[in-house]
Amino acid sequence: MDEADRLLRLLRQWLDDTGAPGVSLALDDGRTIRCFAAGTADPATGMPVSANIVFQFGSVTKMVTALLLIEALSDRGLDLDAPVVSVAPDLEASNDLVFHDATIRQLLNHTSGLDSQWWADMGEGEGARRAAARAIAAQPLIARPGELFSYSNSGYVLAGYLTEVLTGKAWEDFADARIARYLGDHSISARAERVLMRPAAKGHATPPSKDRPALPAARWYAPAALAPGGGLAGTPEDLARLLRVLRGRLGTDRQPVFVPTIGWRHSGWAPGIARYRLGENVFAWGHDGTTVGQACAVRLCEGRPETVVVAANAAWTALHVGRLADEILRTVTAIAGPADSAPPLAGYEDWTMPPETDPSGRYARLNATLTVALHPSGDILLAETYSPQDALNWFGAKIANTAGTAANPERLQLYAHHSYAAAGKELHFLRHPEAPGCLYAHDGMRATPRTTRFWL
């Protein structure tokens, strides 16, 4: 069986395992981009997935947003260590004065201290992103800039706004034009009216069951002002073409300076891009993304030319599509792995809690409240409540466990010092080194501070 047959068999098996309607793969060996597809782009019509089908990139967009901002800064003779407010003085109105110290680099590597998930629909007008940026900058920080990794969609809304300030153009228009400079004709855009002129995959929000088919997504994407955090769409092949440019601009082959992360998912973050451990001393750079009905993952092998882009029209594959990209990259490079991960709090030793610290309590961020209780075994019980606004933005309707009622507690097993895990989930507890009473629950992506708001 040749490599193409193995890859097609892998894609078809993945569809069987996940229940996703369709999947598309672009594989770049540094010389040629090959495309593979399986399943259906739209089950209602039977349209198959093919190389020219457009998919949503979700948070993979952040890689492009970082590239665009870096280039806009370079065009003006500025660099990533410029303070955010030096580019956009209107953001000095922040209620949290320490935000004035945040740099553009910190926005892009998720250490700005901004809360993760600021969601609000500011409409489609010319000032929508400016209004969103000002509202985000007015939110209290969860940590001081530069001291704690916490993945932030909000930071990338600001990154898009800074690009607009620097270029004098709408972020969507600057993205279209700058990508065209590199690729010529291309399918990539955040404007639905442009993307949907091409055949597009129909997104699905929930998986099929015995009684019903997969539920189609209720909308194309979240509010327009948030597009720099996840609004691009296009063909995987065009994204693979753009990633050739991004390799050079973001310096993935030069091992850029990256910040340490928490947990087992990543081994570090640089501006716009995460570092993944593929095998013993073998790494890839990339990003995963999810929208209301689709999922995407990108991997760029470190020190080698291979790049993988995978996209599926099923939101529930968010945890699976990155693993598929890893498996494909290992298949085509013959990398053995995965290797053992680093200790979950490597890089944050000063934030380690004493063994006797009780992590029980309520932890709150903008869109979620976590209720943590110790189990007699030493494990924890975790109940998560999410904002109904998230459901409205993503699904167009309220769904279970988002209307203020906590979900049934889930038991997470103790794996390491104040680090817990269950299937597909991890949670790590930290204490601020300068404030012993300031605790955080960190899921490997986002930090959630323990709150003193007793009414939650």
Low-confidence stretches: 400-405
Task: Name the assembly state.
Answer: single chain
Globally, the shape reads globular
- How many individual β-strands? 20
CATH architecture of the largest domain: 3-Layer(aba) Sandwich
- Judged by helices, strands and strand pairing, the structural class is alpha+beta
Written description of the protein model:
By secondary structure, the protein is α+β, with helices and mostly antiparallel strands. The chain has 2 domains: about 1-340, Beta-lactamase; about 350-450, Lipocalin (Beta Barrel). Helix content is about 25%, strand content about 25%. The chain is built from 11 helices and 20 strands. The chain has helices spanning about 5-20, 60-75, 85, 105-110, 130-135, 155-165, 170-185, 190-195, 235-250, 320-335, 390-395; strands spanning about 20-30, 35-40, 45-50, 55, 205, 215, 235, 270, 275-280, 280-290, 295-300, 305-310, 360-365, 370-375, 380-385, 410-415, 420, 425-430, 440, 445-450. An 8-stranded antiparallel β-sheet has the order 3-2-1-12-11-10-9-8, sandwiched between helices. The chain has an 8-stranded antiparallel β-sheet with strand order 13-14-15-16-17-18-19-20. A two-stranded antiparallel ribbon has the order 4-7. Helix 2 packs parallel to helix 6.
What are the key terms here?
2 domains, Lipocalin, 27% helix, alpha+beta, 456 residues, 8-stranded antiparallel sheet, Beta-lactamase
Question: Could you write a compact summary of the structure shown?
Answer:
The chain is an alpha+beta fold and 456 residues long.
